């Protein structure tokens, strides 16, 4: 699939990268809005490769269970290396990365940070690992800076760390943040971007204040209507070799809105199915999902945990909250009691924008299902 548009977001992020690193940037937005795709596009096609070295750590594809394996996730262990003096290894690694060899193009496909096996094993057997880990990364980044290359550190689905943080290791996330602040605001050694679809995680980071003045937030939302219609033109040319009529495009938008993945699904199915059938089928499935969700509430007692307080929620309050969306796609978050919206966000029915203080369904499709059922 070819990449489409996002010029505004790309220019913003490239401008940030051209400046001196000062902040940790959180890229947030609804599920499947295109955050990861956008960052990958920038890394592979839009970055000046003579100036930057990106390191991409995707916590979703790496099974993160505890602190040890959080550390494993940061690295790609160089099994062949016999070097246990990390300074020596960093020297050869920076030479490789600066030399513009094969190695560097691999990095552009998004690699974690390389570390030599003997040194990694040495760290791993220690009780307190993070100090050495951070020291290694800092040293590597400082060397890259000396050679005129700015590292860019990207964490995708960073909220996965929060799970292990909740299991008795609250400090981990904050020690990571402290480290990232030191790398950006204090030493200006690298750019840091943290991506997450989990709006409760973004809210947690945003509201706890620990990062105040050291973090900034970039929304990557579903496409707006104008862009969504253009995306349909782009896809129909690509996939169907023909144009869609304005009515067809309006109809698609009214069902799935500007969520790229859903628009792709519709246009792709148009190769072998009728438009109205495709859309009705998608809506039917979404309605079924929501029905099941509501039915389950007759049997299970929904609960959320707010600052270690377990709070029970009534089905009626959930329904009442969803009813608010009958006439509005987006509402202020003070219209719904916090435990209720937290539950609906957790179940991926609503998206919370903690920066704006707004709530909306995760997609137009979900919105349409809400309107039909309630
Ligand atoms: N700008 C885009 N151009 C083309 N396809 C896109 C674009 N943004 C998203 N997509 C499609 O939507 C899917 C979901 O996007 P993704 O980046 O995984 O979402 P997120 O990381 O926000 O959850 C991608 O696999 C891709 O097919
Ligand atoms: Mg993603």
Q: Return the string of H and E elements.
A: HEHEHEHHEHHEHHEHEHHHHEEHEHEEH
Name of the CATH architecture of the largest domain: 3-Layer(aba) Sandwich
Mean pLDDT: 92
Helix residue percentage: 40-55%
CATH homologous group name of the largest domain: P-loop containing nucleotide triphosphate hydrolases
Q: Briefly note the structural class of the backbone.
A: alpha/beta
Which small-molecule ligands are present, each listed once? adenosine-5'-diphosphate, magnesium ion
Distance between the termini: 37 Å
Radius of gyration: 23 Å
Low-confidence stretches: none
Give the beta-strand count: 12
Please tally the helical runs, counting DSSP H or I stretches of 4 or more residues.
Answer: 17
How many structurally independent domains? 2
CATH topology of the largest domain: Rossmann fold
CATH class of the largest domain: Alpha Beta
Main sheet overview: 5 strands, parallel
Polypeptide structure, described:
It is a single chain. The chain is α/β, with parallel strands linked by helices. It folds into two domains: 7-219, Rossmann fold (3-Layer(aba) Sandwich); 293-373, Arc Repressor Mutant, subunit A (Orthogonal Bundle). 53% of the residues lie in helices and 15% in strands. The protein is built from 17 helices and twelve strands. It has helices spanning 7-18, 35-46, 67-74, 86-99, 102-108, 117-124, 130-146, 160-166, 170-186, 199-208, 225-240, 246-256, 260-269, 275-296, 315-323, 338-346, 364-373; strands at 24-28, 52-58, 75-78, 113-116, 150-156, 191-196, 215-219, 303-306, 309-312, 331-332, 350-353, 358-361. Strands 2-5-6-1-7 form a five-stranded parallel beta sheet, sandwiched between helices. Strand 11 (350-353) and strand 12 form a beta hairpin. Helix 11 (225-240) runs parallel beside helix 13. It starts with 6 loop residues before the first helix and ends with a helix. The model has no long low-confidence stretch (mean pLDDT 92). It binds adenosine-5'-diphosphate and magnesium ion. Magnesium ion is lined by residues 35-36, 156.
């Amino acid at each position: 699939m070819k990449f489409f548009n996002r010029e505004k977001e790309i220019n913003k992020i490239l401008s940030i990268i051209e400046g001196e690193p000062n902040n940790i940037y959180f890229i947030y937005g609804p599920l499947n809005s295109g955050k990861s795709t956008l960052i990958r596009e920038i890394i592979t096609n839009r970055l000046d490769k003579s100036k930057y070295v990106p390191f991409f750590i995707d916590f979703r594809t790496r099974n993160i269970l505890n602190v040890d394996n959080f550390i494993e996730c940061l690295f790609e262990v160089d099994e062949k290396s016999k070097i246990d003096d990390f300074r020596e290894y960093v020297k050869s690694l920076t030479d490789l990365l600066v030399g513009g060899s094969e190695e560097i193009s691999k990095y552009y496909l998004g690699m974690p940070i390389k570390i030599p096996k003997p040194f990694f094993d040495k760290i791993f057997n220690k009780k307190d690992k993070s100090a050495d880990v951070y020291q290694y990364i800092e040293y590597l980044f400082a060397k890259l800076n000396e050679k005129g290359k700015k590292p860019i550190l990207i964490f995708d689905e960073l909220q996965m760390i929060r799970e292990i943080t909740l299991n008795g290791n609250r400090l981990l996330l904050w020690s990571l943040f402290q480290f990232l602040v030191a790398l950006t605001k204090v030493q200006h050694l690298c750019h840091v971007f943290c991506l997450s679809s989990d709006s409760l995680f973004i809210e947690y980071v945003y509201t706890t204040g620990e990062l105040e003045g050291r973090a900034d937030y970039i929304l990557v939302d579903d496409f707006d209507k104008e862009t969504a219609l253009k995306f349909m033109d782009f896809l129909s040319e690509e996939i169907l070799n023909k144009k869609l009529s304005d009515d067809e495009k309006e109809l698609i938008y009214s069902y799935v809105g500007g969520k790229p993945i859903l628009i792709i699904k519709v246009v792709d199915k148009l190769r072998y199915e009728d438009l109205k059938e495709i859309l009705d089928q998608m809506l039917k499935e979404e309605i079924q999902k929501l029905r099941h969700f509501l039915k389950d509430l007759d049997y299970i007692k929904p609960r959320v945990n707010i600052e270690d307080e377990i709070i029970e929620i009534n089905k009626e309050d959930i329904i009442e909250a969803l009813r608010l969306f009958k006439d509005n796609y987006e509402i202020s978050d003070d219209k719904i009691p916090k435990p209720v919206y937290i539950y609906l966000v957790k179940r991926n029915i609503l998206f919370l924008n903690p920066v704006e203080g707004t709530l909306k369904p995760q997609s137009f499709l979900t919105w349409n299902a809400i309107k039909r059922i309630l």
